[in-house]
Amino acid sequence: MTSEALAALKDRLAEVRLLVRGDPLRPGHVESDRQSHEVVPLSNALNRAAVVLACAHLEGFLEDLLIEAIDFIVSAAPPVERLPIILRALHAEAHLGPLELTRDRNARAVKIRVMFEAENEIWQPGKPVTQGMLRAATVASQMSNPGSKEVRRFLELIGVNIESYLESRGTPSLLKRIDSLVMKRNSVAHGERTAVATHADIDGYLETLRELAIALTRAVAESVRDVCGQTHLPWAI
């Protein structure tokens, strides 16, 4: 089977292409009733919106990809010690925030008991991974504005060193190329009117996202295969 996250991203990016198709400055665009003074503002508005949308779709893809990976791991039920330790620790960390805010000793004791009861099995060697040990919402919450640093840290949860992976494939700069998109998105989202993008910028961003998504999907697939102790990838690329 193919990766559902990757297939969904293709549809997501098609939405961005549909949006920018209306750019009056895009080569081949035909505009009949547009006033000349509206052309540049319309082009800027469409491309600025496309930047924000493309960035959101990248973030959604990354969340979907790791959720898909977790679902596969749960279905394969490898022993918990094969999971990346930071993935196991993440689920315990979810309890620590409330603990830090609780000053009453009795109330803290109850929360500590709940933490150990909830997360005990994921630390027992030989215990197979089961539904509930890995929480998709907990993992997805670790994804934020998807710059290269955030993507690297997010993929580490599933055991992927994406910088080493891309370097081994001869594309070490691929991840860094999304930083331009994210910086532009941040400027637009914070109301900077001077943050603009051209149709060439959008086309370049979309091609970068396509290439990067394929690479990330394969990297995650290889890591999931190793975690599960299997010889075949969980999905075709």
What are the low-pLDDT stretches, counting only 5+ consecutive residues below 50?
none
Helices and strands, in order, run as: HHHHHHHHH
Tell me how many strands there are.
0
Termini Cα gap: 9 Å
Could you say which overall geometry the principal axes of the C-alpha atoms support? globular
Write down the Rg. 22 Å
Largest sheet: none
Mean pLDDT: 91
| Helix percentage range | 55-70%
Structural class category: mainly alpha
**Beta content:** under 5%
Number of helices: 9
Provide key terms for this protein.
237 residues; mainly alpha; single chain; globular; 0% strand
Structure overview:
This protein has 237 residues and is an all-alpha fold. 65% of the residues lie in helices and 0% in strands. Helix 1 packs antiparallel against helix 2 (36-76) and helix 2 crosses helix 8. The chain is globular, with a radius of gyration of 22 Å. The model has no long low-confidence stretch (mean pLDDT 91).
Topology of this protein?
Elements: H1 4-20, H2 36-76, H3 85-101, H4 105-119, H5 136-140, H6 148-156, H7 162-168, H8 178-189, H9 199-228
Helix pairs in contact: 1-2, 1-9, 2-8, 2-9, 3-4
Quick description:
This protein has 237 residues and is mostly helical. It has helices spanning 4-20, 36-76, 85-101, 105-119, 136-140, 148-156, 162-168, 178-189, 199-228.
